[in-house]
Amino acid sequence: MKVLLLKDPKEDDCGQDPYIRELGLYGLEATLIPVLSFEFLSLSSFSEKLSHPEGYGGLIFTSPRAVEAVELCLEKDNKTEVWKHSLKEKWNAKSVYVVGSATSSLVNKIGLDTEGESCGNAEKLAEYICSRESPALPLLFPCGTVKGEILPKMLKDKGIPMESIIVYQKVPHPGIQVNLHSYYSQQGIPASITFFSPSGLTHSLKHIQELSGDNIGRIKFAAIGPSTARALAAQGLPVSCMAESPTPPALAKGLRLALQAPGC
């Protein structure tokens, strides 16, 4: 059974995207098509903030892209050695909160210890942070232009200081239309399409509707998390599956159940 995942391919240590491998265990033939590209913003300002851990109570990472922004700051400003020998340890003396295992592993690679990674989404992470002792200094939150408001609002309501800085923006991937057209012409209508962000849905839905035509009702739509599920519902599309956490096993389990439902 063919399924379509609208995300970038990412190879793991085994040289294969973990989503393709995990879905394959359930007999699902997954194809990945990227729908978003990223542009980084305000890196010099972010780099300055990273150089002064004494001004913050910790860090919050809710996306792999925010971690990439840290790496770019270190490379661009030749701060890799300073990071290794002093800055990293100073940040590690504070709390570094993350959402999900993918973001956590990237944060670990730049030498930081993480907490909260078992929280599958920003709302659960906010609950976790609120359950901790409130820091006197603000938590530094590098984020994208389209950030959810749940985490900032929950922290604000609890009186937890936070300073957000926009370090990237999502733009449509230049190959969306061509890649989707190629998939449909070669593979036909997929049994399921999984969206990985509200932005990804925004930039791809029109093409999917055009290519699917009257057959769109045959497709089971899946979301990687609650914000994407809400975006699907807002477009009037039925959400057949929402992964319990943003991981390959959770998505595979959810898709298997959705595709076993009557009518598949």
TrEMBL record:
Pathway assigned in UniProt: Porphyrin-containing compound metabolism; protoporphyrin-IX biosynthesis; coproporphyrinogen-III from 5-aminolevulinate: step 3/4
EC number: 4.2.1.75
GO MF annotation list: uroporphyrinogen-III synthase activity
Keyword Nucleotide-binding: no
Database matches in PANTHER family: UROPORPHYRINOGEN III SYNTHASE (PTHR12390), UROPORPHYRINOGEN-III SYNTHASE (PTHR12390:SF0)
Biological role: Catalyzes cyclization of the linear tetrapyrrole, hydroxymethylbilane, to the macrocyclic uroporphyrinogen III, the branch point for the various sub-pathways leading to the wide diversity of porphyrins. Porphyrins act as cofactors for a multitude of enzymes that perform a variety of processes within the cell such as methionine synthesis (vitamin B12) or oxygen transport (heme).
Stated name of the protein: Uroporphyrinogen-III synthase
Provenance organism: Panthera pardus
Gene: UROS
